[in-house]
Structure formats: C-alpha cells, structure tokens
Design brief:
- By secondary structure, the protein is of the alpha/beta class.
- Helices cover 32% and strands 16% of the residues.
- It has helices spanning 56-68, 87-96, 112-121, 136-143, 149-162, 181-191, 217-220, 222-230, 248-254, 300-306, 308-314, 328-331, 336-343, 354-361; strands spanning 2-7, 26-30, 73-77, 100-105, 124-130, 166-172, 195-200, 236-240, 259-261, 270-273, 278-280, 293-294.
- The longest helix has 14 residues, at 149-162.
- The relative contact order is 0.15.
C-alpha cells in the first residue's frame, strides 16, 4: 500500500529502515469480505461474505499461532470488520494473548456499546476511519452508501475520541477526492484527529474513476502539503512509498518539516491474511499470484522466512529487480504491487519510480566508432 500520513499530533514513528532484517512482528488481517458499502475504490473488492471465511474458532487459532510466532500487533480491516458479530470476542482473545489491535473501518457500525467493550475488554489502540470527503453527496456516491452516511461517520469519529482511542481518518486519492483534502485537513485540525492518511490506490482490485497507476501523484499532492504546513499545529509526514525520498516534491517538503520514510514492510516485518486464510506479503496483493501460504495449513514463520516472494522483497537485486540502481539497497526495488499492475509481473519494474523515470528520460550519449 502506498501511503502518505500527515500527522498533526505527536505519537509513534520510527526511523528504522524497512530493509533492515527483522522478525515477523505484525499482521494486516482482512477479517471479512462482507461490507455494508460498495466503495468505488476497494483494496479487497469487498461486498459479500466469503463462505470460506475463517470461523470464530479458526480466528482464535490464528491468534494463538501468530502470537507464538512473535506477532504483537494486528491491524484488522475487511470489508468492514464490524460486519462480523464475533469481532469483539476475537479482539478480546487477542488481548488475553497481550496483542494490540488497530482497526480500519468505515465507522458506520460503531456504537457506544461496541466501543465501550473494546475499551474495557481489549487492547485496541486506534481507529482509522475511511472518510474520503466532507461532501455528503460525493461521500454517498464513492462509498455507495445510504443517504446520511457521512454524518454517521463523523459521529463515529466523535465517539471514538470520547472513548479515548487514537483517532485518524483516511482518503483514497482519486480525481474526485483530491480537491477536498485541504478541507479534511482543516477539519482534522479543528476536531483533534491525529492523522490524515492518503492512500494511493493500487489497481489490483476494485477501482473506478481513478488516476492512472503511474500518475505522478506526489506532484498532484503538492497543494495538499502546502495546506498541511499552514495548519496551526502539525507534527511530521510519514511516507510508506519506497521511492519517496528521491521525488523532488518530497525533497522540497523535507526542507520545511520532518519527513520520515517508512518504505514498504510487506514481507519484511509483516504479512497480510485475507478472510479465507490465504497469506500474502501486502494488503494490496490479495491476488492468486501473490498468495504465499494458507494460515489453516502452513506454518506462518516458515512462510515468512522461506516463501520465494517474501525472499524476493527482502533481497530484490538477487531476483533481477533494479540491479543497476545504487538505491536498491535502501529503496528495496519499488512497490511490488505497483510493478504487478504496471507490468503483470511481481518481479517487474515499478515504472512509477522517479529514479527510473529520470533514467528513462535521459538520452544515452551517442557512441562514436572510428571508420
């Protein structure tokens, strides 16, 4: 997932290189495909529950096994995770194991009762609510939600804060949502939301009316960065984009505010589990070509340590990725999901990379051959 996090208030960050060897420490768990909305942009093409979805007992077994493997932190999403009526039971079981939960949700099903149970029975730390826009008509269109759904999301954000959870919002960057991001930043500042996360949609699953995959989205976001810098309180910017440090817009931004480059940790310190138990390195690679194991049958540490795709993301140059680029040791060879979309290959070139773009645009010197 290619993200920019605009952090308004101090919290957690890390300067650790994503390519530094690491054990498996966290999971992104899409716990259901069921969703009460049908968003035009969805990283899992959510809608209906899959009949092969992990049961409550199987979910608890996943928690036991991943805990024993060293996982301490799980992000739960979907679909809409609160479509599962056993979600509190599952997260409470995580708490018994000392495991932290973080939720990515549309916010539509968050009642005071549910939030109170999560506060009292679990180790839930944070919520990221998919906001996308403050325009109620556009919100209804892009979420394919009922009328009034934006007001429900905003009320849920208020409840989340009242129950003491770290509160953040997200925007999927499209031509429709981009003009409204400055207003979301202003609202975040006024409401005390800690972070506004901007997702660059990867075209591996459902997407409608998006930008081209190789569009220069960091240049598109320059006015957004200017609004962020103008806020009365702002902390830092985090990038989860392997090649962000080499982009001219980010280089200029670094001269005005602290920018922390987190790169991509998919297959490097975390894995993703889909609702039916299939494992992939990245939440945006829930595709057959990227499934590296099955949590029902495979040892997750063996998958993490020995699957060819996880080895490839940890040592890209050994698989022919960006072998002539001096930055591959810090960048990690770009985004594998982006490369898959742009080339059809998981080991292909991420042609959105600004270094590659510059190299492509630079004409080679003519070679003079004596007669």
């Amino acid at each position: 997932m290619l993200d920019i996090k605009l952090k308004l208030t101090p919290g957690h960050t890390s300067e650790r290189s994503p390519l530094k060897p690491s054990p498996l420490v966290s999971l992104f768990w899409n716990i259901t495909y069921a969703c009460n909305y049908r968003c035009e942009v969805c990283f899992t093409s959510a809608g209906r529950r899959d009949p092969e979805e992990l049961s409550t007992d199987e979910a608890k077994e996943v928690i036991r096994r991943t805990h024993d493997a060293g996982v301490k932190d799980i992000i739960l999403s979907g679909g809409e995770p609160f479509m599962r009526d056993d979600i509190v039971e599952i997260v409470a079981y995580m708490a018994e194991m000392g495991m932290v939960a973080r939720f990515a949700s549309n916010g539509s099903l968050l009642t005071d009762e549910i939030l109170g149970q999560l506060r009292d029975r679990t180790l839930t730390k944070s919520f990221q609510i998919s906001l996308d826009t403050l325009d109620p008509v556009l919100y209804q269109k892009i979420h394919r939600s009922p009328p009034g759904a934006l007001a429900v999301a905003l009320n849920s954000l208020r409840r989340i804060q009242e129950h003491g959870f770290h509160t953040t919002v997200s925007v999927r960057l499209t031509p429709e949502t981009m003009p409204g991001i400055p207003d979301i930043l202003d609202r975040a500042s006024a409401e005390g939301w800690a972070t506004v996360t901007i997702h660059w949609p990867l075209h591996t699953r459902r997407i409608k009316d998006g930008f081209p995959q190789d569009a220069d989205f960091l240049s598109l976001l320059e006015p957004v960065f200017e609004r962020f810098l103008a806020l009365p309180k702002r902390w830092l910017v985090e990038t989860y984009i392997p090649w962000a440090p080499y982009h001219p817009v980010i280089k200029r931004l670094e001269q005005q505010i602290r920018v922390v480059h987190r790169g991509c940790a998919g297959g490097r310190d975390h894995l993703t589990i889909n609702p039916t138990g299939l494992i992939s390195p990245c939440v945006c690679l829930d595709v057959p070509e990227a499934h590296v194991g099955d949590i029902r049958t495979d040892d997750i540490l063996d998958v993490f340590n020995n699957s060819p795709l996880c080895k490839m993301v940890r040592s890209p140059q050994e698989y022919g990725i960006c072998v002539d680029c001096p930055e591959v040791g810090t960048c990690g060879g770009g985004c594998r999901a982006s490369a898959f979309v742009l080339t059809g290959r998981l080991d292909g070139q991420d042609t959105a990379c600004p270094i590659w773009q510059t190299k492509k645009a630079t004409p080679r010197a003519a070679t003079h051959v004596e007669p």
